[in-house]
Amino acid sequence: MNIRTLTKKLKAKYTFVGGEQHGYIKVGKNGLYGFVDCNGKVVIPLNYEWCTAFMRIRLYGKTYIGAYVEWDNSKAIIDKNNCFIVEPMERNAVSYVINEKLWVQDCEGFCIVNRAGRKMLSISYDLVINDRFRQPKGVFLVKKNGKFGAINVADNKRETTVLPLEFNDMNFWWSPGLGTLIETSRDGKDKGLYKLDASNNIPERYNEFLYQTPFRKVFILAEEDSGYTLYCGETFKPIVSSDGYINSYYAFALNGTFYYSLNTPTQKMLVDGDNNVLLCTDKEHYISCFHYLMSLQKDKFRFNSLEELVEYAQKIKNGNIKLTASVKRALVVYGQYFFEEKLHRYSKMYGYDCASVKLCEWSDEKFTKWGTCDYNNRIITLNIDLLFTSEEFIRMVILHEMVHLKYHTHNKAFYKALNKLCGDDERKVNYPSEFRLLTVDVAGIIRNELKRLFAQAKEQRLLCTQESKCKRRINKNITFQYNAEYEIAAMEVKRKVKKRSEK
Fold first, then answer.
1. Class of domain 304-466+482-502
2. Residue ranges covered by each domain of the chain
3. Residue 271 neighbours by CB under 8 Å, 6+ apart
4. 20 to 30 Å CA-CA from 63: which of 161, 296, 357, 436?
5. Distances from the Cα of 270 to the Cα of 109, 258, 376, angstroms
């Protein structure tokens, strides 16, 4: 007999018929419940006032097929033979199965009891936190006399103290790669983090914790009123602190070691897998680690200005230069460098906070997006195909996205600020739909170039450490100092000469 036919037959006999679970079907009549098998035969009489369907129950290291039942003033867990898995307890008793342990509340409080109903802990607690999603094995958060603590109950042994009963608040905190941690607070406001064995901790001084998981790495970002601190997820050691938000990204892998980029509103850093800061650039002088490493090779540059790069791109556009893989790589590398420098220059000139530059490719037959602004993370993304327009149009796009750092939408204030910067020079440039830079992995090219430049600088011992903050000379023969004032003055003179010639 199939289940559908059996169900129809049972509904004619019982007022309640449940679904089949583990070979048994829950049925009810006249306010009482029991179970029948898949042949419709009663296997557990209808003697219970309430029950669940049969399910898998993991308890004290064993897996049972059981059901929760209640009758008269008692409740228990039974197996498929109607035998008690857990000895009956009072019906009004509060009970939880938490991480394979049965917690029961009586007049003294919450305590773990075994299958026979005997208490397994030395004392009872006022509260146990039941977190079915983040509950780690063996560790329980408990409360006694108004204070929280953590205990470990391994197998059927008595408890051991993980954290003493001295916290005003306590919860589980989870992140991928690390698993479950313990979030604590002594004053009810400032929070800290502990490992499950209490071996390491982040002090109780923060408002909130966030996790960041770049490739094969876990960082914990701790927020307080004065700013942020980035911690290593494995060691709980602080790496860097900042007044503003800290972003972490996977940078590259070199000789089996993974490297990561850390970005703050004022600095960019390159760290290794052991959290050693190998390179730290100050945005006051250097836009990024990539820009700094490129600047060390400035005397070897193929192009000395964005204007030269645009002229070269125009020759490619006109078919005078073949667009090979090496040419595309050069366009991306130099484009990243000069776009960063242009943005930094305009930011200094017009009093805007410096943002990061990211290149990508956005072109299709019907629509071309020249740039976007992520004002939350302070990232301006530019289309690499800008190189095939003109230097003046590039300036318009960069200024447009830069203004979005202050004015997030295209409102009147935005256009007023933009017109103040661009004036009558703001105009559109026709983009030839028949030309494309073709498919190119922009992010991959920049990542590989950063890797190459880093390896070269490391070999030549030209790296700028965190302590120097890019304010000292790296080498007597190689020094890069960004003179924004000189660049701004030179550009203004150039613009005035150009306008005069046009008149």
1. alpha beta
2. 1-92, 304-466+482-502
3. 239, 259, 260, 262, 277, 278
4. 161
5. 53, 11, 21
